[in-house]
Amino acid sequence: PYNLKELPAVRVVEGPLFSEVVAQYQHFEQTVRIHNVPGVDGLSVDITIMVDIRDQTNKELAMRLVTNIQNGDVFYTDLNSFQIQPRRFYQKLPLQGNFYPMSSQAYIQDSHHRLTLHTAQSLGVSSLESGQLEVIMDRRLMQDDNRGLGQGLKDNKKTANRFRLLLERRSMGNVMIDSGTTSFPSMVSHATSALLNHEVLALPVLPKRRGVPPLQTFAPLKSILPCDIHLLNLRSIQTQKDPLFPSPHTALILHRLAMDCGFEGQNLGFNCTTTRGQIIVSNLFKNLDLHLLQPMSLTLMHSSTPLANDSTISLDPMEISAFKLKLR
C-alpha cells in the first residue's frame, strides 16, 4: 500500500452537470468524477491520476481495483485496441510475468457482472487475485534491468493517466458466451472507449468581421451510421499527376465492431441500431451522388472490380474494409 507521510488534501465539487472528488497526495493527484448527463458520459466513472514519482528510487506506482467479482484467475486485455485476449494469472510465474499490455481496456467478469477499465494510454495490467484489477501507472528504475534497454528508467515526467471505469450487469437469461480464446466488449463499452480515444475536437470560431465570409457547415451524411460501424476515415485521394491537388475520388474506410449483446442497456441516452453489417453506400450521403463504388485494399494501392452504385456492402464483425468513391 502507498505510505502516507501526511494526510491528503481533499476537494469536493458538486454541481448539476458533474460531481468530483480531488485527492492530492505527495506523489499523485487523483480526480474521480461522475457526470449527470444523458449518453455515454454518464454511464461510467471518470478517473484522472496525475503521477509524479521523480523523487523516488526503484519504485512503481500502481492502482488496484478491488471488487467481489468472482473472476478466478482469468482476466481480459485488448490486443492492439482491436481484439480482446483472455489472460490467466499463473502462480509459477514471477510477478512481472503476469502483467500484460493494456492498449485501450481490460476487464474482469463473472456470470453476473463485468468491470471494465478503459484507458486513454497504454499501460501494464494484471489480476493478481480474484476480483482485483491492477494497473501500473509509472515506474522509476535507477539501474538497467537486463531487458535490452541498456539503462535505467530515469526519464520520468509528471504524467496524467486518464481512465473510465464501467460496471455492467448481465441481462437475465443471457449466459456468458466467452470462450477460452474469444471475448467481446459491449456496445456501451465500445462507445466509452471511443469517448477516450476519439475525442470531439471543438474548434472556436472568431466572431464575424467585416469582409470575412462566415464558415459554412459541411455535414455530408444523411443520418448516423449503425452503432456497430466505425467510420475510420473519409478523405480525398491525392492525384498521381500533382500530389498537391486532390483527385475527384474519395477513400472510405469502415470498421465493423464485434460486440457482446448480453448486457443490460436501458436508459442509454442515445439511439443504438444495427443492420447486421449491411450498408447501402449510396444512401449515406445527402446532396451528393455516388458515381463509383470500388473495393480497395487498406493501403488503397490495389483495387477490385467496381460494384453497382446502389449495391449493399456487407461487413463481418472485426472486419476493416476500404472503398474508393466518386461523389458529385
UniProtKB/TrEMBL annotation:
Domain of life: Eukaryota
All residue ranges annotated as the Glycosyl hydrolase family 38 C-terminal domain in the record: 2-147
Gene3D superfamilies the UniProt entry points to: Golgi alpha-mannosidase II, domain 4
UniProt-listed SUPFAM superfamilies: Galactose mutarotase-like
UniProt cross-references to Pfam families, sorted A to Z: Glyco_hydro_38C
Record's protein name: Alpha-mannosidase 2x
Organism: Goodea atripinnis
Gene assigned in the entry: MAN2A2
